[in-house]
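Backbone-to-sequence.
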């Protein structure tokens, strides 16, 4: 029987493909703008936000999106020209972790008996557990995020490569930075459903890092980052389906790490014919 005959696998492929495409696009700009630490902070924010929603009896997606987008914008306002800086991230990071510990204690002591697996799914993802409605919601949200990123790609690329010149040319650098951070926050919330809050940084950073090493063309690297993210998502889902003991989130990130590692392998050069000028 084909894997696609199983609804849970079909839902995972639909949602995973859309989530990976959005993460690949956003991740490329994260790497280009040297804001990968922001993605790390948002992964912990996703954990805290989801646990807060669960502890309060809400849908965890409410906590995911409100917390990640809110903290992403906060980092942008605290930074310069809509960019988060390490000092702001460090301060917010510790505060968010403290809140995470509080909500974890609150959740495990009051509500974990009703939904004991929810906390684990927040940490490591539960893409094979998505319902049809959740999968199509993920597709819709990811499509909007991809559209926004593609719409601002040209000025955002200009601002990322030469912020001072872009500002002098009239590019709204600060607004672009805030829009980008909001999109990254939403991507982090979406990716948490696929790979979990502990591993979402890998989905944002690994394909983008590999793409940047494989080509010097920004637009080509942007497309390659999204393509690699989708391919790694498919590979992880295939491994997770074929070997049920392997969590799909592990397969996805293992594929990402493998591809990134292969970019460091030197390719053999073709020998030049004797007598060639």
């Amino acid at each position: 029987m084909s894997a696609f005959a199983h609804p849970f696998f079909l839902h995972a492929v639909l949602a995973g493909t859309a989530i990976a495409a959005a993460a690949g696009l956003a991740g490329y700009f994260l790497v280009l703008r040297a804001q990968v630490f922001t993605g790390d902070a948002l992964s912990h924010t996703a954990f805290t936000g989801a646990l807060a929603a669960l502890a309060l009896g809400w849908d965890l997606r409410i906590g995911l999106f409100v917390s990640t987008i809110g903290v992403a914008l906060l980092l942008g306002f605290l930074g310069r020209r809509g960019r988060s800086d390490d000092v702001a991230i460090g301060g917010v990071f510790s505060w968010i972790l403290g809140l995470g510990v509080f909500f974890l204690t609150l959740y495990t002591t009051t509500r974990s008996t009703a939904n004991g697996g929810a906390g684990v799914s927040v940490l490591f993802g539960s893409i094979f557990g998505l319902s049809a409605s959740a999968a199509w919601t993920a597709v819709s949200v990811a499509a909007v995020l991809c559209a926004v990123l593609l719409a601002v790609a040209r000025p955002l690329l200009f601002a990322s490569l030469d912020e001072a010149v872009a500002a002098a040319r009239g590019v709204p650098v600060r607004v672009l930075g805030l829009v980008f951070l909001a999109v990254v926050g939403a991507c982090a919330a979406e990716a948490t459903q696929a790979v979990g809050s502990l591993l979402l940084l890998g989905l944002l950073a690994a394909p983008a890092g590999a793409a940047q090493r494989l080509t010097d063309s920004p637009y080509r690297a942007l497309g390659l980052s999204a393509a690699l993210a989708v391919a790694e998502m498919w590979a992880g889902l295939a491994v997770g389906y074929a070997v049920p003991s392997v969590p799909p989130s592990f397969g996805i990130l293992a594929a990402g790490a493998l591809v990134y590692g292969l970019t460091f392998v030197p390719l053999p050069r073709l020998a030049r014919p004797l007598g060639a000028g």
